[in-house]
Amino acid sequence: MNVPSLHLTQGTATFAQDEPFQLESGSSLSPIDIRFAVYGELNAAGDNVVLVCHALSGSAEAHEWWPELFAPGAVFSSDRWCVVCANILGSCYGSTGPTSVNPATGAPFGDSFPLVTIGDIVRSQALLLDHLGISRLHAVLGASIGGMQALEWAIRFPSRVERCIAIAATPLSSLGLALNHIQRRAIALHPDLGLRLARELAMSTYKSAELFNERHARNPNRSGEPPWASPTGRFDIAGYLDYQGEIFSRRFDPDTYTAITRAMDLWDPARDPGDVVYENIRARTTLVGISSDWLFPASDVRALAQTLTARGVDCSYREIESAHGHDAFLAEPHHANQLLGEILETSEGASRSRPSVGR
Amino acid sequence: MNVPSLHLTQGTATFAQDEPFQLESGSSLSPIDIRFAVYGELNAAGDNVVLVCHALSGSAEAHEWWPELFAPGAVFSSDRWCVVCANILGSCYGSTGPTSVNPATGAPFGDSFPLVTIGDIVRSQALLLDHLGISRLHAVLGASIGGMQALEWAIRFPSRVERCIAIAATPLSSLGLALNHIQRRAIALHPDLGLRLARELAMSTYKSAELFNERHARNPNRSGEPPWASPTGRFDIAGYLDYQGEIFSRRFDPDTYTAITRAMDLWDPARDPGDVVYENIRARTTLVGISSDWLFPASDVRALAQTLTARGVDCSYREIESAHGHDAFLAEPHHANQLLGEILETSEGASRSRPSVGR
Question: What is the pTM of this model?
Answer without folding.
Answer: 0.95
